[in-house]
Design goal:
- The chain is built from two helices and eight strands; from the N terminus they run H-E-E-H-E-E-E-E-E-E.
- With 142 residues, it is of the alpha+beta class.
- The strands form two sheets. The protein has a four-stranded mixed β-sheet, with no helix packed on it. The chain has a four-stranded antiparallel β-sheet with strand order 2-7-4-3, with no helix packed on it.
- A hairpin with a 2-residue loop joins strand 5 and strand 6.
- The chain is elongated and about 85 Å long.
Length: 142
């Protein structure tokens, strides 16, 4: 059996294969945000450090996300404005690297007041404070 290879066809096939594989690896990175999820634990009211509770009066009138470093632990605090009738719940925390800065993105949902709190505090697995924090909040569908 004598098999002849068309070298030009083989080279074009290999190049096309590399382009297709490269497209599947490179294109998603161009259009998707490269974020790292942050592990966190929601704290119950009795487990919140006293120093954090003492500063909460300053922030309960604002809708915001804060990060606090206390005893080598990073805590994330999410508050809602007092005018809101809903409570708040953290859905996801992630770290995104943009222009050599670590940006923490906190996703929160406004929920029924009876099922949530006006502010929530989470203890994270982070070792350093982020450069900036962004809060993305959504209303829960009723």
């Amino acid at each position: 059996m004598n098999i002849k290879f068309n070298m030009k066809g083989v080279i074009i096939g290999v190049v096309l294969l590399f382009l297709v594989i490269g497209g599947f690896l490179v294109l998603p990175k161009m259009f998707m945000e490269d974020s790292t999820p942050v592990d966190y634990t929601m704290l119950q009211r009795d487990a919140i450090p006293e120093k954090i509770l003492n500063i909460m009066d300053k922030y309960t009138n604002e809708e915001r996300a804060l990060a606090v470093k206390l005893d080598n632990k990073i805590y994330v605090i999410v508050t809602r404005t007092q005018g809101k009738e809903e409570g708040i719940q953290i859905d996801k925390i992630s770290i995104v690297k943009e222009e050599d800065k670590n940006i923490m993105k906190v996703s929160a949902t406004y929920k029924d007041k009876m099922k949530s709190y006006p502010f929530v505090i989470a203890e994270t697995n982070l070792t350093d404070l982020p450069d900036r924090i962004e809060l993305n909040s959504l209303e829960e569908e009723k």
